[in-house]
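Subject: Sanity check before I submit

Could someone independently write out the structure tokens for this chain? I want to compare against mine line by line before I put it in a report. The sequence has 528 residues.
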Amino acid sequence: MDVLALDRLLDRRCIDQVLQGVAGLAPAAGLSLAVQDPAGRTLAGAEIGTSQVAARCEIVVGSKLAGWAVAADPAPSGADCAAPAAASLVARTLGSLARGEAEMAALAAELLSRYEEITLLYDLSEVLGSALDEGALCAVAVERCLRAIPASSGTISLLDADGRLEPVAARGAPGAKDVWAGTEGVAAQVTATGNEALMHEGEGWAGPDGASHAGAPALLSVPVVPSVKAGGGSPAIGALTLVGRRSGERFSAGDARLASSVAFQLGVAVENSRLMNNLRAAELVQHEIDIAASIQRGLLPGAPPDVPGIALAGLCVPAARVGGDYYDFLIDGSGRVSLIIADVAGHSIGSALMMAMARAVLRREMSAGKSPAQVLGATNDAMLDDLTTAGLFITAFCARYDGATGELSFASGGHNRPLLRPAGGAGITNLDADGMPIGVMGGVFYEEVRVSMSPGDLVLLYTDGVVEARDATGEQFGDARLSQLVADIGGGGPGALVDGTYAAVQRHLAGTVPQDDLTALALQVRAA
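---
Independent answer below. Compare away.
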């Protein structure tokens, strides 16, 4: 690709203003932006090393490479990363400004006699660059275009989000609306093909259905195109259409060039407006997710309660900003401690919302002094309709330890079977009880089982994010590794086991992004 010097078309102040404007759209993202010449030398903005580049977009003027828009994001997060959109916005804006400058120079050399038209384009560029609303942009463009190109009426139609061509702004007399408006009109064909249409008065026009529009007034319609890519044009996003001239007058090739320049500047402005709105929407969504994550963290217990005769520890790490895992401790008036661990299918906002609802129900039922089986049964009845409507379900394990009897009673709602480690570390067993996940069907029977625990005995509750964690080859962490881990480090107490489980899973993942939330909860009977 041929190259040209961007700094010969735009001064440093203009480039700096564009960088500052785009950086100001997403202050929470912490982006660093720079503009480089075709050889990679920095013209404006931050010095960004090769290893720091998160996005790099060509700045194209016509078919020539004028430079690069570079963005560095110190903490990119997958689809939430703002660097690509910011770099694209800088490249598009500078490319359009530079192309406008280049076109102005060419027009000035070619059409010195058309001073008013050149002034119009400069004025329009400034006005369009300061507005964001699409309706306002189109209204200004059509009004200024009619000033320079005498016509009875003008309209601008744009494709909406659903791909429908809709009139956005119109000025002047109604004109031959049946010729240029709607999905069957000239504007639609110009938008679809990207080619201008110029017809003289009385020429007539055959529509897509073959119907002839004889005796139609003079008409000029040009595509609204957001940018021009090297090697070919970009798809049109609409059309600028002028209808009607004085009797005997025609739209000229010069009128078409001027209208195309206006349409191009409008296309860039509309595209930038949409990019800015998308950036702001992404920032708003990220902000709302951050709030949801903060609220969800607040629903988890802080430090474990200090209960005589036992030690407790818990940990919950969502795979995304929000997750569907939950654990809790609750102590009743008799000093018995209830434990709950649960996992909503998925780890989306919907899963997090459903888990927040489940937490309220589970805590209510446990606080009422119900047995583990009764807690799960009542929660299933209370949440069945909501879970069915959402297409979700919850696996859960509820247990209650009574220090007076040394007995652990428990019930399972289709959850992973906890591991019981005897004081000596040998003979790891599973705690198993019959019961279906919450939200699958009504009237479920939950079996309640009791086991006696001795000083030093430890039980580990966990979600499937532990055993189903996969490394780069697809191998799961697995039940066997977890059982061995409990045997090896469970003697160090609940805190050491919970932390050790998380560390072991991270080693197994070896940098692979986890696909599910990871939650672990442990209880150990203290030695007398």
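---
OP: Matches mine. For the report I'm noting this point. The chain has a mean pLDDT of 81.
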